[in-house]
Design a protein that fits this description.
8 helices, about 140 residues, mainly alpha
């Protein structure tokens, strides 16, 4: 029975990775090409610049934009932090999960930048790492 449980968690992990790629490159709304939606929007290389803007200028954003780009960016990486130690035994420390999450998040940001299927934002990397850390801590509590 344990082997089936491990297999099911691995399949769940693969589905999560697929979902993560869809959310990162296709997004929630797929009616328009995303490259057209990001024309004129600048990339952000300054840590916490975007987050501070969302916190202190919240009235400039609709709720969907604000939520997706703050809380949503944290939530999207929580399953990675939760599932990674359950699927791969060598990812059993917070440090190893954060290193993997950093590589994954930076890879997504770089591909978004190169393909124009998104905007490169260092704050997304920071928030993704926070989400992975929360997911890891939840996995240790359960």
């Amino acid at each position: 029975m344990q082997k089936y449980k491990q297999y099911a968690v691995f399949i769940l992990f693969l589905f999560y990775l697929f979902w993560l790629m869809v959310m990162s490159f296709v997004g929630i709304g797929t009616r328009h090409l995303r490259a057209n939606n990001y024309e004129g929007i600048n990339n952000n290389f300054i840590p916490f610049h975007t987050v501070i803007s969302y916190v202190f200028e919240i009235d400039h954003y609709n709720f969907d934009t604000w939520f997706y780009n703050t809380i949503g960016v944290v939530i999207i990486f929580m399953p990675l932090g939760f599932l990674l130690p359950k699927v791969f035994s060598n990812f059993n420390t917070l440090k190893s999960v954060l290193y993997f999450s950093l590589v994954m998040s930076m890879s997504i940001e770089i591909v978004q930048f190169l393909t124009r299927l998104g905007v490169l934002d260092v704050d997304d990397v920071i928030l993704n790492l926070a989400g992975a850390a929360i997911g890891y801590l939840i996995s240790k509590l359960i």
